[in-house]
Amino acid sequence: MKKRKVLHIVESFGSGVFSFLTDLVNSTDDEFEITIAYGVRNETLENFKEYFSNRVRFIEVKNFTRNISLTKDMKAFFEVKKIIKEVNPDVIHLHSSKAGFIGRFAANGRKVKMLYNPHGFSFFMKNSSSIKRMIYLVLEKIGALRNCTIVGCSNGEYTEALKLTKNSICINNGINIESLEKVIKNFKEKEIDLNNLKICTSGRIGYQKNPELFNKIAQEFPNIQFTWIGDGELKETLTSKNIQVTGWKTREEVLKIINENDVFLLLSLWEGLSLSLLEAMYLKKVCIANSCIGNKDVIKNGENGFLVQNDNCKEIIENLNKEICKKVSENAKADILNEFNTKRMVEEYKKEYRS
Description:
Elements: E1 4-10, H1 15-26, E2 32-38, E3 57-60, H2 70-87, E4 91-95, H3 97-106, E5 113-117, H4 130-143, E6 149-152, H5 155-164, E7 168-170, H6 177-184, E8 198-202, H7 211-220, E9 225-229, E10 243-245, H8 251-260, E11 263-266, H9 275-282, E12 286-290, H10 295-298, E13 306-308, H11 313-318, H12 322-338, H13 342-354
Parallel strand pairs: 1-2, 1-4, 2-3, 4-5, 5-6, 6-7, 8-9, 8-11, 9-10, 11-12, 12-13
Helix pairs in contact: 2-3, 9-12
């Protein structure tokens, strides 16, 4: 039987979106013929192809850029249009705002199933001016007029998608437990050490991840070691002497560092649904996350982690004790096993691809 063709189009080919794609693609390439049209970012791993099955085909979109550029975006549009014509897919799966907008119009009314994952709507980007955010919202509304299903990766994102179009569904992000277990099988579970607390976060050091607040909290606890796994344009913001910045690491190295810490601190101003957060929960870390869409869809305050509200992060850290840490970390892992795993997530995407 001939396999249905799935074309993934992704400009933001790094960090959380990259992890999402590796799990989804490697769990669906047995049933579907998969091509990934991608852009290269600073955080795109040089050996990225090694993370995927050798059945997957890659095509670089040379004019994909993070920022809006009429010249490059028009060139990217024609590149994507040419790729769609060449691949002739049955399903087009778009990832993040830039690829989502260009891809929906490059498909040019083809009779093809289209899915679009925002992975965090661009109009929530608080580092953009109100005018820019309004432009992003208008572009999303225009894009939503196309015959394409928007897939919210959390309930909060799905609620926002419904404001754009009724043609929206929710498929919660998940992590691949089997794949994760292969990586962490030799890790020793770390018991929380309240007398020698270690706190970390992971991701691009950019405005979204709130490095200014991370630095402020580190300054309030000079005797605690803070680690930022990643790199980015706002690295200079992390001035506190007790912060270690690791630079970009492989997935195994990232997980190893998270496992060596006690607390995972995610202070994002906006999120889709952070895979790093889900992995930290599975590793039974005490997770403290800013109360924004995405984070509050998975963290139940005081039950499986803590939500930062009204600048109470310092208070949360000061009030940690062994009993509460044990409870929230065990509940966190149980929630990942029951709700946020790729086995469930992949089956839902497969249903969409088949339909």
